[in-house]
Amino acid sequence: MTRIAVVSAGLSQPSSTRLLADRLAAATERALADGGREVTLDVIELRDHAHDLANNLVTGFAPPRLRETIERVTAAEGIIAVTPIFNASYSGLFKTFFDVLEADSLIGTPVLIGATGGTARHSLALEHAVRPMFTYLRAVVVPTSVYAASEDWASGQSDGLNARIARAAGEFADTLGVGRPSRPVDPYADPVPFTQLLGDTAR
């Protein structure tokens, strides 16, 4: 069973961002099914964690509900991440979520990126903003990113969008089959008890 976290940073409800995330998830599910693999989709709406994310930035600690969500994302075998584009870049909510993750938590994780916006002029934001962020986090971003402008949802105009979704989902499914490398070992994960340290000093 392949578990995929679907992260949507849409602000409205319903939102085109969530719609694109769902379309990418469904296409990935079909692509994996063609290879005889089952998938579990874990959909996460970041708008539900907006206040907790702000508190996390200020205090440095994630409230329990946000911590659980972070663990679900970082433990997934792959991530579909979709953001609305504002002022030619990702939304603040989207960036804040990935800012609060541990630095090494996405190493080697396959990621399919998507974005929505009112005009096709913002489509390059995926390449100059979203992709570099995940590359910095050392995730494995699939070659095809998917941008959907308002006109892409119009009747008779969706063929191009459908083709991009299918191609990106196929690449993502292929990447998921490679497997995720082991994460670096945390040297502080199993600390020596303080009493033992005192005992060593006494000797």
Automatic annotation (TrEMBL):
Listed GO MF terms: oxidoreductase activity
Keywords of the record: Flavoprotein, FMN, Oxidoreductase
Transmembrane segments: none
Residues in NADPH-dependent FMN reductase-like domain copies: 2-153
Domain of life (superkingdom): Bacteria
Protein name: NADPH-dependent FMN reductase
UniProt entry tagged with the keyword Calcium: no
InterPro entries reported for this sequence: CE1759_FMN_reduct (IPR023932), Flavoprotein-like_sf (IPR029039), FMN_Rdtase-like_dom (IPR005025), NAD(P)H-dep_FMN_reductase (IPR051814)
One protein family per Pfam: FMN_red
